[in-house]
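Write out a record, focusing on structure:
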Amino acid sequence: MPETLTPPRAPRKDALENREAIVAAAATVFRHEPEASLDAVAAEAGLSRRSIYGHFASRDELLAELLTRGGSRISTALAGVHHDDPRIHLALVGAALWAEVQQVRVLAQLAVHGPLERTVAEALEPVRASVRDAVARGVTAGWFRDDVAPETLARLIEEAAIAVLDEAVRADLTEPEGARLVMTIGLSVAGLSWQSAAAVADALPATAITPAASSAPAPRAAVSSPLAPAAPSRPLAT
């Protein structure tokens, strides 16, 4: 009589819930203390250390799961972010980052403190590529500063955006306030005056900067440019 194969059992509901609780607790704990132990994660999740090892063989494995999820969410948020006007493009990147603020903050913390720098770099690459694209076009159009190499300027904008995300969360800003702050600071670092940066942010429709819009981005042409056409920057008169 031929042997019948028993199909693998699906994970129990409570096991799935525990795994999700562990990942959520890890995001909270590592955001505040990148070097935290699994004991701290277990305490935050309300589970035993043994329960964590039932799902993750090591701390690095848990971190890798956290980074993979965070990177996926960020990639999804940025998937449709593009605009022919580099100022609007950069503003929309800032809004998308705000929509995934907790994921970005965890990745940023682990990027400088964790053992998985390569995984972090891969997770943040969609952000970096989008910022580099906006910066290169903005410099060429004369809107962004050209006294700094574009690659360096893109890194400075990224670092400023992450610092602003931290401050916005600490200040308990509302969704519109947080998105606006991230957008305007990024544009200011790029070379716009604070007044011009505010004008870009204020000109965008609310639907373009809400978390829902960022997680399901609009097509490229969905956001029209309400700003004046780009023109080369001129030096101040002496």
Remarks:
- The two ends are 97 Å apart (CA to CA).
- Residues 211-222, 229-238 have pLDDT under 50 and may be disordered.
- The chain has two domains: 13-57, 66-215.
